Amino acid sequence: MIHPSPLMRDPLLAGAVACCLACQSYTAATVATVNPGNDIRIALTDQGTTTLATALGPHAVGLDGTVVTRDSTGIRLTVQQVRREDGTSMLLHGEPLRIPADAVATLEIKHLDVIRSVLLAGAVATGAALAANSAGGATGGQPSTKTPAAPK
Hints:
With about 150 residues, this protein is an alpha+beta fold. Helices cover about 35% and strands about 35% of the residues. It has helices at about 5-20, 45-50, 55, 115-140; strands at about 25-30, 40-45, 60-70, 75-85, 90-100, 105-110. It has a six-stranded antiparallel β-sheet with strand order 1-6-2-3-4-5. Mean pLDDT is about 80; it is low at about 1-10.
């Protein structure tokens, strides 16, 4: 069996990771409908940007995180990313933060899109198999087991 070289595996691995990330989708939700463990994306209100400036820094317009708890007044989450007004973002390492409900303009829950994931995984596997097959064909196939004839 022919194994792809490390150079071939790395792009395939990168493609597989990209495919998995590409198979995420978001659905609209509210503060009242999220549950602990949900990965969410929040867009902040103007007031939320002002209220949370000391915790998130200036010009924060949104954030991504995981819900720890929620009640009628807001959400406590671990923040992984803060998005800024100028389009830049800052990655965090699960910083805990309470977001008041009135600071949330929109809220979305991240989901794995299973159908797209399965289709993309099949496409990546097919591409890997074709690449491995063509790499084997380029070397001339299996080595010969015949003994060369003696010179005359």
